[in-house]
Amino acid sequence: MLKATVEAVHSVGGRVVVHCQTGEGSRNAVLAGADSLEHGMHLDPALLDLMARQGTAYVPTLSAFAESAEIWQGRESSARRSNWPDGRQGMIDNVRLAHEAGVTVLAGTDTFPCGTVATESQWLLRAGMPTEEAIGATSWTARDWLALPGLIDGAHADLVAYDQDPTAEPETLGQPKRVILRGRIVR
Predict the structure, then answer these.
(1) Is residue 48 located within the same domain as residue 67?
(2) Are 105 and 184 part of one and the same domain?
(3) Which of 174, 143, 146 has its CA nearest to residue 160?
(4) Where does residue 80 rank: exposed (0-12), middle (13-18), buried (19+ CB within 10 A)?
(5) Do 108 and 66 share a structural domain?
(6) In this predicted structure, which of 21-35, 38-52, 164-178 has the lowest mean pLDDT?
(7) Are residues 94 and 9 part of one domain?
(8) What residues make up the domain containing 133?
(9) What is the largest CA-CA distance in the chain?
(10) Which of 94, 128, 130, 178 is deepest in the core (most CB within 10 A)?
(11) CATH number of the domain within which 47 lies
């Protein structure tokens, strides 16, 4: 059913994003040809080469899961609670492996409590992504994957400016000096 859904969406030019918090869900999403795997808890690293070949992006949302770690640890013992730390660690471990396999790794913040792309970039760095790629996951790589234009004539004037070069000092990502969105100064 999932594969048929992915094929139907692709046939009209759409993309399919699948949120996965189990190994089976992650495997099914990859085998169905989903365009993006969100979270990817318990993702089998053996699937990373297939993800790279078919262009399935990996969006682990590490910052959001880090923010909820205390919540999960405080919950009453259950199979789901016990399964959560292993799944979170697997997402962290898979970031470096996915990058090395050629999978597009993107920043995501979609679960409660939500993180920020700056915090997500820091988590991607901690997980072993090179600095420029971790920053790209929050900006130019994400724009490219979403088929949004980059810095070209006629594109929306979206820009974030910093006092320091974030590729040299990634911790500055959360401290922009100027933000321009669609040509309008936001900050």
Answers:
(1) yes
(2) no
(3) 174
(4) exposed
(5) yes
(6) 164-178
(7) yes
(8) 2-148
(9) 56
(10) 94
(11) 3.20.20.140
Residues 96 and 119 in one domain: yes
Is a pLDDT exceeding 90 seen at residue 71? Answer: no
Q: Which residue has the tokens 């959360």?
A: 174
Distance CA 24, CA 42 (A): 8
Nearest-angstrom CA–CA distance, 37 and 18: 5
Q: Structural domain tally of the chain?
A: 2
DSSP 75-132: SPP-HHHHHHHHHHHHHHHHHHHHHHHTPPB-----SSSP--HHHHHHHHHHTT--HH
79-130 pLDDT, tens per residue?
666 677 777 888 899 999 999 999 999 998 876 556 688 889 999 999 999 9
Q: Are residues 115 and 175 in the same domain?
A: no
Q: What is the pLDDT of residue 128?
A: 94
Judge whether 76 and 107 are in contact, CB under 8 Å: no
* C-alpha distances in Å from residue 62, one per residue of 71, 127, 181, 187: 15, 9, 26, 27
Domain match, 182 and 91 both: no
